[in-house]
Amino acid sequence: MLVTTTENVPGYRRTKTLGQCFGVVVRSRGVGGNIIAGLRSIVGGEIHEYTQLLEEARRQAIDRMVSNATAMGANAVAMMRFDSSEIGQYMSEIVAYGTAVFLEEEK
Fold this sequence. Notes:
Elements: E1 2-3, E2 12-28, H1 31-43, H2 48-71, E3 76-87, E4 91-105
Parallel strand pairs: 1-3
Antiparallel strand pairs: 2-4, 3-4
């Protein structure tokens, strides 16, 4: 499955636009991770525990979006984007979304 942030893909033409597709993930860091992250925030710098959490959540959101697009009959997702928000104090929502399309190679 080709996933692109652009509307058009060089070398391909869009033959079908199937509609929006998305993948949603809500993740929470455990209590231990929150304590370690809290201590690291005192001295500043990157908080690796949260970076890893969000990287994994983005990958999982993309996987879910691809599954959604595949179920719609797509072979690509165009205009893919991420959105994120906080739910409560300790949860993050990550959404990957785009347009499910069917592409054919240009000849």
